[in-house]
Amino acid sequence: MINETIYPLKGELEIPGDKSISHRAIMFGSLANGTTEVTHFLQGADCLSTISCFQKLGIKIENTTDKILIHGKGLHGLSAPTDILDCGNSGTTTRLISGILSGQTFTSTLTGDASIQKRPMKRIMDPLRQMGAGITSIHDNNCAPLTIKGSKLQSIHYYSPIASAQIKSAILLAGLYANGETRVTEPYISRNHSEIMLSHFGANIKTEGTTAILLPNPILEGQKIAVPGDISSAAYFIAAGLLVPGSEILLKNVGINPTRDGILRVAKEMGGNIELLNMNTDNGEPTSDILVKFSALQGITIGGEIIPTLIDEIPIIAIMAAFAKGTTIIKDAAELKVKESNRIQVMVDNLKAMGADIESTEDGMIIHGGNDLHGTIIDSHMDHRIAMSFAIASLLADGQMTILDKNCVDISFPTFYQDLNRLSGNTLHFS
Ligand code: S3P
């Protein structure tokens, strides 16, 4: 992008559907009796991977422009796939489906793209094996491709060393097929969309502190699910609205579940002018419009229990910190190293290349904000959140910006560049 002038962002934006909730709607709808209707579904590549996996497991899923219809066959209605299940780039698909496949009466093999084949699966293989699943890594490296031999499962109480909704959900989904009560305790609470939606479909599930507790063998019934806008996608426009002088943006119908809203708390603590309007609840998920106005930001320290509530937003928070006054310290975020890319390394390398004062630490980064940043060649490592973060950084940087593999945003936000152009009233040329 050639940035000779700074264009304020103005107007309203409907944020695409939440990725985590869209995945779960397909999965739980497939395991329910009868039809589940999903509106505002995220038509991103990751969620389309989930649809294709469940179609291969014998579920009829109709994807029309305005809704998804899932013709569920009940908890025991999946059939043996005739093909390998391809989870694409999606960690959520890979890990959650592994829990479901562990409790089936057939064997399946799943894989994904080059990034998925490097992501750690031992974190779900260990607890699923404790439950009795026959799960093996084909290359014996604890990564996909995985073969899962469905088995009779025992319930466990798993103490997860990591606050991770993907680990928690994989175990709970296997727990649907277990012989007793399944419990998962986390160090801090991670996103609880599985718990909320499973309960909505009729499962007997509750939370005590950081422990989720599920009873097996529920009768799940098809539901109407209206997916809220994804706060992780809204985060790029929250940052743009705060950073670009003169901006004022209204983000419509965004999910503000407290296990996901860390970005709002951080943005406010940095001095951001953010207002929540029209607060509501959809299928147990709180939603709101978010009004964002340009603000002078200052650095803060971020760590501890807030980290799981903003784990996917740390790349864009690092961009905010680079333009803020003072120092931002991000700690307790070692999980960033095992996302779609090593997000600590990739953020530090790319921000340094733009002229930022930033260093990596064992579990995060330290950013001394306020340097003038210039355009450069950004290697996105095919990671959607890296590409979008640097597209926002380029709004304020001097000179030409090139984002390699910029179309990887299709994973979670296919209309990202069009929406950015529309709000800036300009055609921003990203090369
Ligand atoms: C997700 C959980 C998070 C998050 C991912 C989506 C989910 O991963 O980073 O983008 O939908 O459960 P972890 O559970 O590994 O932290």
If you had to describe this structure to a student in words, what would you say it looks like?
- This protein is an alpha/beta fold.
- It has two domains: 204 residues, UDP-n-acetylglucosamine1-carboxyvinyl-transferase, Chain (Alpha-beta prism), CATH 3.65.10; 208 residues, UDP-n-acetylglucosamine1-carboxyvinyl-transferase, Chain (Alpha-beta prism).
- It contains twelve helices and 24 strands.
- Strands 2-15-17-16 form a four-stranded mixed sheet. It has a four-stranded mixed sheet with strand order 4-5-3-14, with helices on one face. Strands 6-7-9-8 form a four-stranded mixed sheet.
- A hairpin with a 2-residue loop joins strand 16 and strand 17.
- Helix 7 packs parallel to helix 9 and helix 9 packs parallel to helix 10.
- The chain is globular and about 60 Å long.
- The termini are close together.
- The model has no long low-confidence stretch (mean pLDDT 97).
- Bound molecules: shikimate-3-phosphate.
- Shikimate-3-phosphate (S3P) binds next to helix 5.
Unreliable sequence segments: none
Strand portion: 25-35%
C-alpha Rg (nearest Å): 21 Å
Q: Structural class, please?
A: alpha/beta
* Ligand list: shikimate-3-phosphate
**Which CATH first-tier class of the largest domain would you pick?**
Alpha Beta
CA distance, first residue to last residue: 6 Å
- How would you sum up the major sheet? 4 strands, mixed
CATH second-level architecture of the largest domain: Alpha-beta prism
Q: Strand tally, please?
A: 24
Global geometry: globular
CATH superfamily of the largest domain: Enolpyruvate transferase domain
Q: Overall mean pLDDT score?
A: 97
How many structural units, i.e. domains? 2
Helix fraction, binned, reads: 25-40%
Task: Determine the CATH topology of the largest domain.
Answer: UDP-n-acetylglucosamine1-carboxyvinyl-transferase, Chain
Can you list the strand order of the major beta sheet? 2-15-17-16
Number of helices: 12
